[in-house]
Amino acid sequence: MSRTPVRAARRAAARLLLLLPAALCAVAAYATDAGGLRLVNANVHTLDPARPHAESLCIRGPRIETVGSLEDTRTCTGAGVRTIDLGGATVVPGWTDAHYHLASVGWREMRLNLEGTPSAAAVAQAVAQRVAKASPGEWIIGRGWIETHWKPAVFPTRELLDQVAPANPVILERADGHASLVNSAALKIAGIARSTPDPQGGRILRDAGGAPNGMLIDRAADLVTVHVPAPTRAQELRALELAGERSLRLGLTMIHDAGRTGESELADWEEIERLRELYRGGRYKLRVYKSVVGPGAGAARLLREGPVLDEAGGRLTVRAIKLQIDGALGSRGAALLEPYSDEPGTRGLFRLTDAVVEPLLDDALRRGIQMEIHAIGDHANRHTLDLYQRAFARVPVSARAVAKPRWRIEHAQVVHPRDRERFVALEVIPSMQPSHAIGDLYFAPSRLGMGRLEGAYSWRSFVQLGLPIAGGSDAPVERGEPMIEYYAAVARKDLEGRSGAGWHPEQALERLDALRMFTIWPAYAAFAEDRRGSIQKGKLADLTVLSADILKIPAPQILTTRAVMTIIDGEVVHSVP
User: Fold this and answer.
1) What is the Cβ-side half-sphere exposure of residue 552, based on CA atoms within 13 angstroms?
2) Per-residue pLDDT tens digits for 359-372
3) pLDDT at res. 27
4) What SS3 class is residue 68?
C-alpha cells in the first residue's frame, strides 16, 4: 500500500505553514475581536458572483463591512480594530458540515475508538486492554470497526469478545452506525435468545443452529442499548465540549447535527439543554443547526412547540426532524429495489411504516418543520420521494407554515437514475457525504453489482440538474475532517490516490462546486443563505482560513491542507499556535 502521494503532500503543507507570518500566530493571544478585524494579504474565494476573488476584508462586529483590495479596506480603522497579515493564506466562507453527529464525535474521543483496526484480533486486543482497567460488570462501549479490509472480510461474532470479556457486557458499533457487535454477557442482559424475534426495522444475525451470534443490525441493537447506563451530565457536557473544540480546530464554523439515534426519545432535547448551558456560559462557539430524531416524544415536542430559531446569538437553531427509513449498505440494511448481489435472499429493510411517517410529515408542513430522511438504497430513496410527494399533495401551500419547506434526503447514496429529476421537481435537497464513496466503493460493487453503481454517489449528476448538495461527513461514521470530504468530492479516489472498477470518476465535482457543497449550499439547506455561506458585505463574518489554495493545488495536497484560523461572528475562535 503506497503512501507516496500523501507523504509528498504533507511535506508541501509543512513548508506552507512555515511561510505563514508571525502576525497570524499572534492571533491566539486574544479571544474576542469586538472592535473589528482587517485581514490583508489574503487569497479570498468569496463565492459572490459579482466579485469572486478579493485580497482584503474589513470586519466590524459580527459582520463583513468591506470585501476587496488592500486599498478598499484602508479605512478599516478605529479603536479595537486589529489588522492581521495572512501571508497569502486562503480564505473561504465558513466551512459547514451538513451531516454530523455532534455528541457522538465527542463520545468517540471518550470511549473505545476502533477506527482503523486492521483485524478482528486487533478489536479483541483493544477490548482486552479496556477490560483490564474496568471493574467487573462495567459496560465496555466502542465504535468504529469495519471489516471491509479484514482477512477474511466477514462480520465478527460474540465468541471474539467472550474470550476477552467474559464478565463485562460489550457493545461495539460498526463504523456506519447501523450494526453492532455484542458479547454473550450483553445478550443475556438484554434477554436476546434463540426464540427472540427480529424487531421491526432490525435483524438479529444467528449461527447455523439459530442462536444469536452477537451481530445486531439496525434497530435490533436497541434491544441492548436500552440497558447501557445513561451518561452523567458532566460526561455529556464534556463530550459536547470535545466535539466543539475539535470542530473549530478543523475549520468548521457550523454543523448540522443529525440527531441522536438508539437512545431515549428525548435525548436530543437533553442535548439541546446541554448546549444552551454551554452557550450561556460562553463556553461554546460552534454554530449548531440541530435536528430531533423521530418518531417519538422528541419529535412530538418539536411539532408541538415549533422551531427554535437563532438562539444563543444566532448559534443554535432547532427546526428539523430526522427519520431513518432504511439501514446501511455495508450491513445490507439499505433498502434496494432488487436483491443484494452478494446475498440474493435480502433486499435490505425498512425501519418505519408509512402509517407512522405520513401523519408526521403532514404536521411538519403545517408547523414549518424541515424533514431530513435517511435513505441509502434506491428503494428507500424512491419511497422517500413518494412519501414527500404525497405529503405535498395532502397539505397545499396555503396550509403550510413555509411555502418551500426545503426538505432533505440524507445520504441519497444509491438513487435510480430515473429518480434524480424527481429531486428537482419536488425541490428536495440531497444531503451527501463524499467520503462514503471512497470507503464504500471497496464493497459496493459486491453489494450492488456493477450496473447499479451508475446511480451511486452521483454528485455531479445532481449538480448538473441544478440541485444544491448539502455536503457533510456523517462523523463519527467517517472521520469528520473537512479536507477529506473536499478531496473525496473532487478526486473521487481513496486517500492513497487509488480508484477501481465502478468508481465512476465522471461523478467527481469541479472544485468550485465542491466548495459550494460545504458553504453556500448548506447555508441554503438551513434557510440561511442570506446571512452565511459566501463572503459578501453585510453577511456574518464566518470564515475559514486555509494553509493552501484548495481550488488550485494538486489533489493529494488537499489532504494535508490545514485550517490555520477559524472565525465566527468576526471572532477568531481558533488559530495556529
Assistant:
1) 9
2) 999 999 999 999 99
3) 39
4) strand
- pLDDT averaged over the chain? 92
How far, rounded to the nearest angstrom, does the alpha carbon of residue 337 sit from its chain's CA centroid? 26
3-state secondary structure of 322: strand
Residues 6+ away with beta carbon under 8 Å from 300:
294
Which residues make Cβ contacts (< 8 Å) with residue 408, sequence separation at least 6? 320, 370, 371, 372, 373, 428, 429, 430, 431, 470, 525
Distances (CA, A) of 296 to 390, 435, 561: 22, 31, 42
Sign of CA dihedral 12, 13, 17, 18: negative
In which residue are the cell numbers 443547526 written? Answer: 289
Other C-beta atoms lying within 10 Å of the C-beta of residue 419: 16
pLDDT of residue 266: 86
What are 481-500's pLDDT values in tens digits?
A: 999 999 999 999 999 999 98
Cα 294 versus chain centre, distance: 18
Q: How many residues does the chain have?
A: 577
Kindly state the average pLDDT of the residues 232-260. Answer: 96
User: How far apart (Å, rounded) are the C-alpha atoms in residues 336 and 314?
Assistant: 40
Structural contact between residues 263 and 290, judged by C-beta atoms closer than 8 angstroms: no
Rounded mean pLDDT of 196-220? Answer: 93
pTM of the model: 0.86
Predicted local distance difference test score (pLDDT) of residue 22:
40
Cα separation, 6 vs 162, whole angstroms = 39
Residue 380, H or E segment: helix 378-394
Say if residue 156 is preceded by a cis peptide, omega within 30 of 0: no
- Give the strand pairing for 563-568 and 571-575: antiparallel
